[in-house]
Amino acid sequence: MVERTEERPLRVAIADDALLLREGIAKVLEGGGIDVVGSYGTGDELLAAIDDLDLDAAVLDIRMPPTHRDEGIVALERIRQDGSEIGILLLSMYATPEYALRVMGAGSGTGYLLKERVSEPQTLVRAVQTVASGGSVVDPEVVEQLVQRTRADDPLARLTERERSVLELMAQGYSNGGIAQTLFLGLKTVETHVRSILQKLDLEESPEHHRRVLAVLTLLGQR
Fold first, then answer.
1. Where exactly does CATH 1.10.10.10 map onto the chain?
2. What is the mean pLDDT of each run of 10 residues along the chain (223 residues)?
3. Contact 87/1 with Cβ under 8 angstroms?
4. Is 0.85 surpassed by the pTM of this model?
5. Torsion over CA of 210, 214, 217 and 218, rounded to 10 degrees?
6. Which of 65, 108, 196, 199 sits at a 20 to 30 Å CA gap from 188?
């Protein structure tokens, strides 16, 4: 990930085979103070240019040419294999838990959102900012699907209703401060809930972002 000062806006590239959607995403991000420094029709085009772009993050469609299956996720996996820690936000037409699991399995600094979020400027901008800072984001519709199918013997059953609400917002990329505002709680109360969640899910001490990603993966049913 690029070293960034407070004065320099985030530098982001977009890869999507739909030109109009690329332009729409760029307009939303630029409206949020983000510099869009590259726009590409395929994941391969982005990969070919990525070393020269000095990126903080990239936004990729999951289904792009040539097969329209999982090219965006393949690009994410190649970026991580190359050792890059830039934020990667994957966009999809569908709330597919299996895609979300694969995306989040790539580690911190990754996210999975539905394309309809492009019409929600604050949501899209916040998601890009979150992955650029090393955090994780999962679309709330995917989170809802996974919560509904949680089994009674799942480790999530150890959580209280309030802790579950906090974890769901963590999965959507909210910081502790954002969770506090959303749930009308004090920041220290949220911090206490987060510590309790990590303990109940048996997540050992590690860097903060890493533990939060592991908590989200538990919510997704991957651990």
1. 155-220
2. 64 96 96 97 95 96 93 95 94 87 87 92 95 92 72 72 91 90 94 91 69 79 55
3. yes
4. no
5. -160
6. 108
Report the distance separating Cα 112 and Cα 98, nearest Å: 11
**113-140: per-residue pLDDT in tens?**
999 988 999 999 999 999 999 998 999 8
Strand ranges (DSSP E) for the chain? 11-15, 35-40, 57-61, 87-92, 110-114, 137-138
Check if CATH label 3.40.50.2300 holds for domain 11-150. yes
Out of 2.60.40.10, 1.10.10.10, 3.30.870.10, 3.40.50.300, the CATH code matching 155-220 is 1.10.10.10
Cα separation of the two ends of the chain: 26
Distance CA 104, CA 220 (A): 9
